[in-house]
Amino acid sequence: MRLNQYISSSGFCSRRQAERYITAKKVLVNGEIASHVYFVEEDDHVEVDSHTITHTAQDIYMILNKPSGITCTASPAIAGNIIDFISYPERIFPVGRLDKETEGLILLTNDGSIVNDLMKDENQQEKEYVVTVNKKITDTFIKDLSNGVDIYNPRTKGYTTTNPCTVTQLDNFTFRITLTQGLNRQIRRMCRRFQYTVTHLRRVRIKHIELGSLERGQWRYLTEEEIAKLKS
């Protein structure tokens, strides 16, 4: 984290005041005068005007309405990664992923303890999507998706049958689907099995957490109630 952000996020002073302390050479990192461009590492010892700066680690939980074109990775080597996009001043990471072209709800946190509960298929956590396809939807198509689909898995070089799921038609080209699995590009591959192509895909819910009216590209913190249910 950049030095001025580190100082201000500790609650010691505002970011602007932190910059003044740095300019006045009253900020020491590991006993040496620090510059504005310094990035604080985990083991650094920071002092401001002879006061030691300490951080109380707080768990961070947020959701982002991910736009198309953003890659769900924390790797700085990949252009357009989600961490650069959100530009949060503390270390966070995405829980799971959405394909680069898929939009909608994704969780970000610094709490690794919730990841397994949300990502393991055996935990049957619901994830809901709104899907638009390239041709008119039929009753047979909705029924076939609901019953489970044999889709090819390139990793195992064999077929996997998807779990039965709830599918509701919204209009001639759009449907809502709730999954409890997390197979790679699952919805796109399910549709392709019946000669449909997905033209737009948006995740709108994970468990009890809903995207709601959050604008594309915007994020918000989870409410206390949402966090409590997430951990229950």
Explain how this protein is built.
- The chain is of the alpha+beta class and 232 residues long.
- It has three domains: 3-52, Roll (Structural Genomics Hypothetical 15.5 Kd Protein In mrcA-pckA Intergenic Region, Chain A); 61-119 and 209-231, Alpha-Beta Plaits; 126-206, Alpha-Beta Plaits (2-Layer Sandwich), CATH 3.30.70.1560.
- It is built from seven helices and 15 strands.
- Strands 5, 6, 7, 8, 11, 12, 13, 14 and 15 form a nine-stranded mixed β-sheet that branches. The protein has a four-stranded antiparallel β-sheet with strand order 2-1-3-4. Strands 9-10 form a two-stranded antiparallel ribbon.
- The chain is elongated and about 70 Å long.
- The two termini are 32 Å apart.
In short, what is this structure?
The chain is 22% helix and 28% strand. By secondary structure, it is an alpha+beta fold.
Strand content bin: 25-35%
Largest sheet: 9 strands, mixed
CATH architecture of the largest domain: 2-Layer Sandwich
CATH superfamily of the largest domain: Pseudouridine synthase I, catalytic domain, N-terminal subdomain
Number of helices in the DSSP assignment: 7
The whole-number mean of residue pLDDT values reads 90
Count of separate structural domains: 3
Structural class by sheet pairing and helices? alpha+beta
Q: In one word, what is the shape?
A: elongated
Distance between the termini: 32 Å
Domain RNA-binding S4: 1-58
EC number: 5.4.99.-
Pfam families: PseudoU_synth_2, S4
Organism: Sporosarcina pasteurii (Bacillus pasteurii)
